[in-house]
Amino acid sequence: MQTSATNKRLRMLLTGIRDKTLIPNPHFQRRLVWSNEHKVAFIATVLDGLPFPEIFISAGTVNPDTGDGTELIVDGQQRITTLHQYFTGSPDLRIVGNSIPTYKDLIESKKREFLEYEVVIRDLGPLSEDETRQIFHRINSTNYSLNAMEVNNSRFDGALKLFSEGIANHPFFQNRKIFTSLDGRRMNDIRFALTLTITILSGYFRRDDEHEQYLDQYNDDFPMGGELKVGFDSVFSFIDACSFPLKSRVWQKADLFTLIVELYRLTVDERKNLHPEITAASLVSFYEEVEGVTHAPNPSPGAAEYYRRVRSGINDRNSRINRGEAIRNILLDCSAE
């Protein structure tokens, strides 16, 4: 395939979007979501006359009778969309304070500079939709398939994601090496923290089903972050005080996830008083019973069911709910109230 790179003035791209001859959101693309802060920073880059990476386009539909046709933005959707939002004064781009001037407040010479800004366009030529789709995925692929968290990471860069990164990097997890180096490379540590945070806000859910909705909703701002951070700190301190054995299954991710959620609900949300030593003794006894389910002659129904829920369908909603109920009941028995 031969491609050509040319410079196009920004005004040509903006009028193309206006006239619907340049399609910024082909249906095969994922809807990209920049935070408002990053949109403003990108606009500032353009206003300063600094370059940004080339945009990939391909031919869209052509009317053979009139000669009218369209072009698709294969890669660079968010950049062009953000520039269009700035030019049109869209409410989807919020300019707060004196970060940058709005387009309508620019003096005429600056407006001309903005419109005459040259964008490097890589024209992929007249491709079929299938070929265009394949190239899009090639441009945006790595040498291995992306997991759900990696896909969301490529789309969202805002407040909730940053909060989850902070929780994943909390000394509580780092000091115990809860996450492996592979977890870090595949973003499973952030995935864990994100699932934990959303569960506190909404309740147990299946796998990663709620991630996209919450990342989108709290991309620009996460106002409850401070309160949640205080709550997590309190729960982590309580678990520290329990002094669980190093080889306890409490340090396995599914078990730890459940314990953090239920401790948060009881000690932070419901303000129950728990004694670390009593709680630790009860949980250690329960975890030992769970570990012995396979060779115990008569394991308790609670331990047997918990064991089943950590062996299959571990991240299904019902499994998470069932494990949560088991741990909550133990914690309630340890409550001073």
Automatic annotation (TrEMBL):
Residues 13-155 form the GmrSD restriction endonucleases N-terminal domain. Pfam families: GmrSD_N (PF03235). It comes from the Bacteria. InterPro entries: GmrSD_N. This is DUF262 domain-containing protein. It comes from Streptomyces katrae. The lineage of its organism: Bacteria, Bacillati, Actinomycetota, Actinomycetes, Kitasatosporales.
